[in-house]
Amino acid sequence: MVKRFVLLATAAAATPASLPAATLAQSIQGDMPQLMALYRDLHANPELSMQEVRTPAKLAPEMRKLGFTVTEKVGKTGVVAMLRNGPGPVLMLRADMDALPVVEQTGLPFASKVRVTTAQGVETGVMHACGHDTHVTAWLGTARRMAAMKDQWSGTLMMILQPGEETSEGAKAMLQDGLFTRFAKPSTVLGFHDAAILPAGQIGITPGYALANVDSVDITVRGVGGHGALPATTKDPIVLASRIVTTLQTLVSRENDPLNPAVVTVGSFHAGAKHNIISDEAKLQLTVRSYKPEVRKALLDGIARIARGEAIAAGMPDDRMPVVTVREELSTPATFNTDRLSQHVRRLFTAHFGADRVASPPPAMVGEDFSRFYLTDRSIESLLFWVGGTPKAKWDAAAGDPQKLPSLHSPFWAPDAESVIATATEAMTIAALDVLKAN
């Protein structure tokens, strides 16, 4: 696969200086053998968040060969590639490149066999179970088309390979490393994500809130331990933590406006070590999801209030109140697709691909740190769209029910990568050419 990847440079050198838009799909098809070789190589060699070394090392030289000015190690492992082509706006195209600690079970001939030991000391497989390998490949495919069509656009094309999306670190790290000050501040940012909720080749656009605020909350519930046969001499943290868990459900069911989506899930409950010992501590881990900032604040404030209130009701002294910690380093703000850009790109894609290939998926409660770029300056036009990845035959067999099919983050997620990459490359190129219209 390494030998086939080298062909990218040769093919790029042979690309005509410019191409009429009508031949875009044909040009992309001509690139696909080399792009698919790259995809299979990336899929077989995934890298965990903020540990991406091999991926940027392969892509940065290819961007330089296309004429981009390339800076590596931005935000630790990120890549910024700039192509200045006369006066005009600055457009940023982003692809994330990290993989997940998942043991792959797709059965693909190029399935990942990579194993690592995480920072927490856990041995695990590593897999592109979220399809970021398709993102990176389409990113390069788009760069090739834009470099070949320089006579059809004017402005600055800013293309970034972002690390650490899965841990919500990467966008923040690149911004803190001067992404918008050392290089340029874009007027428009675009990205895409492969999707298990759509059949391969279909595009999804969700204006407004598309993905959620995601907060991780730890609650340490403190009690007074003792013998299991003598509960009256203790303050049982398991009982108290159980009360907290059940009362937390009222935040959504009784305190939140039902027209404002919200989720509070207790994903982990740990306490005690033996049948006949009442422990002195219980630990809860929560994931909290919302869209609007005021809903997020109400949920987080409510969690702290309920934890303290239940402890008071249980007779806990002030020095044994629960400790509630919002893990800010793991938080991801909601992804907001600006209305003007969303509607314009929808019309653009509908005219180009046809109405049957442009869908309107509902907002989802998953998270994505793409939103950080828009939140840096809300005058930026921002859009993260979906490109369907579920193979058409499997989609049809499941009658279009995503619950009967592997989802993103599943060890069985094997998208129709060729369709995702070709569709995303075409869509990103069309959108980029529109934003950077030559006068």
Descriptive overview:
The structure is a single chain. The chain has 439 residues and is α+β, with helices and mostly antiparallel strands. It folds into two domains: 2-212 and 334-435, Aminopeptidase (3-Layer(aba) Sandwich), CATH 3.40.630; 213-330, Alpha-Beta Plaits (2-Layer Sandwich). It contains twelve helices and 18 strands. The chain has helices spanning 2-13, 24-44, 54-65, 132-148, 170-176, 179-183, 237-253, 293-313, 339-353, 371-376, 392-397, 417-435, and strands spanning 69-74, 78-85, 90-96, 115-117, 123-125, 155-162, 188-199, 203-204, 208-211, 213-222, 226-227, 262-271, 277-278, 281-290, 323-326, 335-337, 358-359, 381-390. The strands form five sheets. Strands 1-2-6-3-7-18-8-17 form an eight-stranded mixed sheet, sandwiched between helices. Helix 1 runs antiparallel to helix 2 (24-44) and helix 2 runs antiparallel to helix 4 (132-148). It starts with a helix and ends with a helix. Residues 1-21 have low confidence and may be disordered.
